[in-house]
Design goal:
1 helix; 5 strands; alpha+beta; about 30% helix; about 30% strand
Length: about 90
């Protein structure tokens, strides 16, 4: 599970070949034991839970880096190495 980015205690990662279960481009997010799956294109929570303030941060970060995330998703879904993305500042 390659880490895409980390900011404010939030860890964002993607699994390789992870396009079977959720069928949409998405990221996995962890924060202090909470886990969530978030759709990259729609910016919606698919599964899990994050504290509301942290979810807002993740959604803002997705909005800023959507093109980079979709490029990483394309790579990861083919099993290729992904690139790190700048954290939210």
């Amino acid at each position: 599970m390659p880490i895409v980015s980390m900011f404010y205690g939030i860890i964002v990662y993607m699994y390789f070949m992870d396009n079977k279960q959720h069928h949409v481009p998405h990221i996995h997010v962890e924060y202090q034991g909470a886990e969530a799956v978030v759709d990259i294109t729609e910016g919606e929570l698919i599964d899990g839970h994050l504290p509301p303030a942290k979810l807002k941060m993740v959604l803002a970060w997705i909005e800023i880096h959507r093109d980079e995330l979709l490029a990483d998703w394309s790579l990861a879904s083919r099993g290729e190495p992904i690139f790190r993305i700048d954290p939210l500042r």
